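Structural prep section.
Before we set up the soaks we want a predicted structure of the protein with glutamic acid in place, mainly to decide which crystallisation condition to try first. Input record follows.
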Amino acid sequence: MKIGRFAPSPTGPLHMGSLITALASYLDIKAKKGLWLIRIDDLDPPRTVPGSIQVILESLFAHGLVSDRGVLYQSQNLVKYKKYLAKLLPHIYSCQCSRKILARHTIYPGTCRHKELSTEDVALRIKVPNINISFNDQIKGTKITNLQQEIGDFIVVRRDKLFSYNLATACDDGDQGITDILRGEDLFSATYPQIFLMNMLKLKTPQYLHIPVLSNLNGKKLSKQTGAPPIKDFEAVKNLIDAMNFLGLQVPNHIKTITSIIEWGINNWSATNIPKQFEIYS
Ligand code: GLU
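Run finished without errors. Recording the tokens verbatim:
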């Protein structure tokens, strides 16, 4: 059984960009007769906007997008991340580099690799070996990167003690048996560290499909941080038709209800229809 997922961070209400990703992941997995899961990536309390989880779930529901197996919350999985982290410990070291030092490098130069630092007030990094990681993106084809040269030792636990996005995502995607990840292109390069972690943890890796992200008139990715307007649930039909348009699907005029639009989308879904770039959203 194929399993897909949509994993929003609760940093604000859904906007058109996140609806497109949610819808695309839904249609893609349903076209494969699979299950679609919702996971709330609420590991970062400083970024969490109170009330937004409810708003996101209500919006998805209003647009006909409902999780097949209840909703998983990353904040409830801390014990699991700890267990996985323990397996990685031989490869992990403490890093006390300041933001200022880190800002000088795009790839972490391994400054703390050979220091024996305490575990207080430090981030934890994983030593990456000099190997290539490759995967086959369903749109972009086979992609390959050298972990040491292009990613570097990356953070698995942040200095504020929060598990990193990459660690939590790798553990959950592996643990939930996700077979198909469809998400925005902005997360493309995170795929390499995530695959590396899944390999280290002996978790099965999914297949990936990264779709374009929606930009506003200033060329900025539409996001809650760049002030993207929330979608209005009472305009669900129009929103779904617009989202389908971005994905290269023209819903025929006579199809006018949420259920029938989604059904039509599933029957007509093809990843090859997705344009290389989305039109600007204004
Ligand atoms: N929670 C992440 C976000 O909202 C997405 C996680 C993922 O799809 O891997 O950007």
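Observations: The beta strands are 3-6, 35-40, 71-73, 92-95, 123-126, 132-137, 141-146, 154-157, 180-184, 207-211.
Flagged for discussion at group meeting.
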